[in-house]
Design brief:
This protein is α+β, with helices and mostly antiparallel strands. It contains 6 helices and 5 strands, in the order E-E-H-E-E-E-H-H-H-H-H. It has a 5-stranded mixed β-sheet with strand order 2-1-5-3-4, with helices on both faces. The termini are far apart. The chain binds FE2/S2 (inorganic) cluster (2 copies). The site of one FE2/S2 (inorganic) cluster (FES) has 11 residues, from loops.
Length: about 170
Amino acid sequence: METTIRLRVDGVQHEVSVDHRTTLLDLMRERLDVTAPKKGCDHGQCGTCTVLLDGRRHLTCLALAVAHDGADVVTADGLAADGLHPVQQAFLDHDGYQCGYCTPGQVCSAVGVLDEVAQGHPSHVTGDLTAEVALDDDEIRERMSGNLCRCGAYPGILAAVRQAAGTGSEQGA
Ligand code: FES
Ligand code: FES
């Protein structure tokens, strides 16, 4: 069964007929020529397919496209539409990558993390739920734990998110 949906991806409006079993990741990569989100596990375990879906980070390998008619998707490419996003610049500044395969997902996830913290959302490691969330290293590690990096670029990723959060860049990883 197919349904026609409308989707805005990195500022470009699309109208496509999709099989109800098609994931948002496959729709973008196979039919819309949007390849910034990568397919890693295809099972919600690695984070390489992360985008910002209606402003919140989301795993596109677990999202059925038909369920997101009218959605606004921003990928790592879209974040760079007007020059590098500060999170992307921070990843460059701190070598937060090696092969780069996980990087688009890491970047989108980090942007989502900063927004979640700005909105006061606690995480599993947040201690005082009545206080403002301080994005320390434990918080960054916890909040970024859904994004795996097989190259082990974690020290650089941690430093990059720290810089983007404005909490300094000199602490040890
Ligand atoms: S490809 Fe989506 S979480 Fe791994
Ligand atoms: S930079 Fe290679 S998987 Fe993360």
